[in-house]
Amino acid sequence: MIDVSETLPSITTIQQFLSSSPTSGAISTFTGITRNNFNGKTVTHLSYEGYIPMAIKVLTSICNDAKSKYKTVDKLVAVHIIGNCPVGAASVIVGCCSPHRREAIQCTEYLIDELKGRVPIWKKESYVGDEDNAVWKENVEWHDGRRRRVMVKGEKKKNDDKK
Amino acid sequence: MIDVSETLPSITTIQQFLSSSPTSGAISTFTGITRNNFNGKTVTHLSYEGYIPMAIKVLTSICNDAKSKYKTVDKLVAVHIIGNCPVGAASVIVGCCSPHRREAIQCTEYLIDELKGRVPIWKKESYVGDEDNAVWKENVEWHDGRRRRVMVKGEKKKNDDKK
């Protein structure tokens, strides 16, 4: 199950999908939700933006890599929101099922690590009292001792219009 | 959230509980479901049996240990079914939330490992065409290179009555 859209599938839908593999005894999921703070600032909400066909292509590639790496894993889920995401709401859910638990948990960790490092989706954080200076966040990730591709999106600020 | 009962909380209830921590950005869950096979035999269903107050006491102790070990983890879930559990249904769900993903995932793995090794709940597997010889399964777990407590429950077989 791969999806990039303004409305994520519910956790119930995802769990039912992963439970439908009769040879699997283990389901592992990871959900990323919007925190209410970053570096001491109060976050009001996040926005995500990306070119959906490319994001889906990369998610598909990550799932294929995961299947090759974790042979016993059966079904996989990787879904990411586009658009606004208030505090406490899910922006990303990954997960999988396998006969035994170790591979399911390790594969889920692999999925979220790869997603954070590879999927071209940008995150904009908006802060309380500072709505005009929302910032597009780069995706800073370390992997196997090296820094992974960092995505930074420039934005024309309102003040720039006056120059 | 700790529970041992014939009806587990839904995954939606659990996810909502874990999402209610505004400082957390990461939710990790693990669900154990009944597989349709074991050692080449077709499993029809599992049954779980245990002394509920003792099981809850051990689950509480495991959650306290997890909170000590993973300091940033906020809310935790550990629920286990008692009674019948058909193929594809959840018998156990553990999970937690934390500001960042690594601790959430590691803590979830710790919770399920400790639960499998310490909680005094016995599992009975029933096989297709062999219902009279359902077996109580011991809980065989390896941890830190050593075998954890193994729980075996004896059962008087029907044939024994004829002797």
What do these coordinates show?
- The structure is a homodimer of 163-residue chains.
- The first copy, chain A, contains 4 helices and 11 strands.
- Chain A has helices at residues 11-19, 52-69, 101-118, 158-161, and strands at 2-5, 26-33, 37-38, 41-50, 76-81, 83-86, 90-98, 121-127, 135-137, 142-143, 146-147.
- In chain A, the strands form 3 sheets. In chain A, strands 3, 4, 6, 8 and 9 form a 5-stranded antiparallel beta sheet that branches. A 4-stranded mixed beta sheet of chain A has the order 1-5-7-2, sandwiched between helices.
- In chain A, a hairpin with a 7-residue loop joins strand 8 (121-127) and strand 9 (135-137).
- In chain A, helix 2 (52-69) runs antiparallel to helix 3.
- The radius of gyration of chain A is 17 Å and the shape is elongated.
- In chain A, 36% of the residues are buried.
- Chains A and B meet through helix 1, strand 2 and helix 3 of A and helix 1, strand 2 and helix 3 of B.
**How many H/I helices of chain A?**
4
Largest sheet of chain A: 5 strands, antiparallel
**First CA to last CA of chain A: what distance?**
47 Å
Q: How large, in whole angstroms, is the Cα Rg of chain A?
A: 17 Å
Shape of chain A: elongated
As residue ranges, the low-confidence spans of chain A are 146-152, 154-163
Which percent band covers the strand fraction of chain A? 25-35%
What is the subunit organization of this protein?
homodimer
Which bin fits the share of residues in helices of chain A? Answer: 25-40%
The interface involving the most residues is between:
A-B, 34 and 34 residues
Order of helices and strands of chain A: EHEEEHEEEHEEEEH
Mean pLDDT of chain A: 83
Structural class of chain A: alpha+beta
Number of strands of chain A: 11
